[in-house]
Amino acid sequence: MMNNYDTRKFDVVIIGGGPAGMMSAGIAAQNGASVALLEKNSKLGQKLLLTGKGRCNITNAEFDNRKLSEKYGKEGKALLSPFSIFAPKDTISFFENLGIKTKIERGQRVFPSSDSAPDVLNALIKFLKKQNVNIIYNTTIADFKQKIDGKISYITTSDNEKIFADNYIICTGGKSYPRLGSTGDGYLWAKKLGHTISEPKPSLTPIKIKESWVKDAQGLSLKNVKLTLWQGSGQAKQNEEKSVECFGEMLFTHFGISGPISLDISKKVGALLDKGEAILRLDLKPALSALELDKRIQKDFQKFQNKLFKNSLNDLLPQKLIPIIINLSKINPDKKVHSITKEERSRLVNLLKNIKMTPKELIGFERAIVTSGGISLKEIDFKTMRSKIVKNLFFAGEIINLDGPCGGFNLQICWTTGYIAGKNAAPKNKKLKKL
Ligand SMILES: Cc1cc2nc3c(=O)[nH]c(=O)nc-3n(C[C@H](O)[C@H](O)[C@H](O)COP(=O)(O)OP(=O)(O)OC[C@H]3O[C@@H](n4cnc5c(N)ncnc54)[C@H](O)[C@@H]3O)c2cc1C
User: Fold this and answer.
1) CB-based contacts of 346: which residues, under 8 Å, 6+ apart?
2) Fewer Cβ atoms within 10 A, N terminus or C terminus of the chain?
3) 235, pLDDT greater than 80
4) Mean per-residue pLDDT over the chain, rounded
5) Which atom from ligand 1 is nearest to the alpha carbon of 396?
6) Nearest CA to ligand 1 atom 20
7) Of the residues 120, 172, 187, 419, which should be mutated to test ligand 1's pocket, given the most ligand atoms within 8 Å of the CB?
């Protein structure tokens, strides 16, 4: 049976209305293109609203492009050329031109001065409207029709529409937080169109920990601590191989650990768990050497010499950690401080600088901030974001095999690749409209 399709034609069709899709759509339209932005939800940018705990960490003020690209691991080299076109400074001016003033916080993280992700989203929507982008909600793609030369001729939508375009940009994101719309659809289409997909994996995700004491610390947030990831079983420390270390803030949850440094280390934890076993060691006092910490404890023990051990750690540790540390130290909690032996004190020092946690698994896509893996970097021309396989196809955002740590680096991928894709998908020689 023949379907009756409605037919429309645009210069550029963008699929996915997240940060990358909105940037691509606005920029393509600003460069003179007639643009349709297809979004399967009834609203744009649902994930953007959750970013930075609702404050939206727009970008990172790392203005040295080489150092910036290094933040994305070995894949980051691919971003050197895109950053020479649109880097964090451009993101800041782009948003300031849209009326979003920004501020820089610790770790060079850039936020809107209003601390409001909805402000960022509304500014982008206003930009799209000003550029006359046709936003088509509650719509997804049923199929891509290709010509003999491989170019996409048109797409069919879930609303029985045929949409023709000169160029198409896929911005459907990864697989993380699928309830917000990113369910990995773009990977399937890209594969069908001949692209290679590096296996999507959850990244920047909380980590489940085997040790049951972790649950007792739930809700506790620690600042200025160091997490070190080791490859090994944790049976014999001398057989462990150091993989990576992170310094900063972390949080205990009912299942394990979360917070910036746990999220940042999670990708490597996942990789080690795939190979075998991984061990995390938490240093509660990284600013002090073992010797300095021992001196500090001796001072506290002097002060509390007539107290019981269980009442002697108040100056050193947060309340919630004290019973846990006492238990792990295997020092009798009811022992008088003055009778604690040197050997026991050294055990305590070693523990505070080396709390062992055994990762069980990563929490998975449901709670992963980003997806690692995606469209193979080799198959994209990073000067234009054009597919090297399908000549009128472009990619932008998280769907590409790129991901960075916490700190505004992941949205920057969207702004950079979205800007370049939008600009290059627009017809050439049209007049640039105002922002
Ligand atoms: C809780 C949380 C906090 C975060 N905080 C930060 C932060 O502060 N700073 C930072 O840099 N990064 C942050 N990130 C990461 C950042 O949000 C992502 O990197 C970014 O949203 C990716 O943008 P995107 O446009 O590529 O994809 P997405 O934002 O996932 O958007 C994809 C869009 O495509 C739509 N779509 C999917 N499939 C289809 C289809 N078949 N048809 C039509 N539309 C479709 C989806 O509905 C969605 O609207 C955070 C992520 C999370 C989950």
Assistant:
1) 294
2) N
3) no
4) 94
5) 26
6) 411
7) 172
**Quick check: 1 pLDDT over 70?**
no
Q: Is 283 in the pocket of ligand 1 (CB under 6 A)?
A: no
**pLDDT tens figures, 374-395:** 999 999 999 999 999 999 999 9
Whether the CB of 16 sits within 6 Å of ligand 1: yes
| Secondary structure class of 359 (helix, strand, coil) | strand
Angular region, 99: left φ>0, alpha ψ -120 to 50, beta rest: left
Q: In 259-341, at which residue ranges do the beta strands (DSSP E only) sit?
A: 278-283
For residue 62, which of 46, 79, 47, 39 has the smallest C-alpha distance? 79
Give the residue-averaged pLDDT of 271-275: 90
Q: How would you classify the pairing of strands 35-38 and 359-362?
A: unpaired
Cα(102)–Cα(265) distance, rounded to whole angstroms?
Answer: 28
Do the beta carbons of residue 176 and residue 21 sit within 8 Å? Answer: no
Q: What's the DSSP call for residue 210? A: S
Neighbours of 276 (CB within 10 A): 9
> What residue type is 266 in one-letter code?
S
Q: Does 142 sit in the ligand 1 pocket, CB within 6 Å?
A: no
> b/e per residue, 56-79, with b = 16+ CB within 10 A?
bbbbbbbeebeebbebbeebbebb
Mean pLDDT to the nearest integer, 81-95:
98
292 Cβ contact partners less than 8 Å away, ≥ 6 residues apart? none
Q: Which two tokens stand for residue 255?
A: 């299942």
pLDDT, position 240: 66
Tell me which residue of 36, 8, 119, 9 sits closest to 422, measured CA to CA: 36
- Domains of the chain and any CATH numbers: 6-202+370-425 (3.50.50.60), 207-362 (1.10.8.100)
Q: What is the DSSP letter of 177?
A: S
Mean pLDDT of 395-412: 97
CB of 20 closer than 6 A to ligand 1? yes
Neighbour count for residue 309 (Cβ, 10 Å): 21
Query: CB-based burial of residue 113 (10 Å sphere; 0-12 exposed, 13-18 middle, 19+ buried)?
Result: exposed
Encode 203-231: b = buried (16+ Cβ within 10 Å), e = exposed: bbbbbbbeeebbeebeebebeebbbbbbb
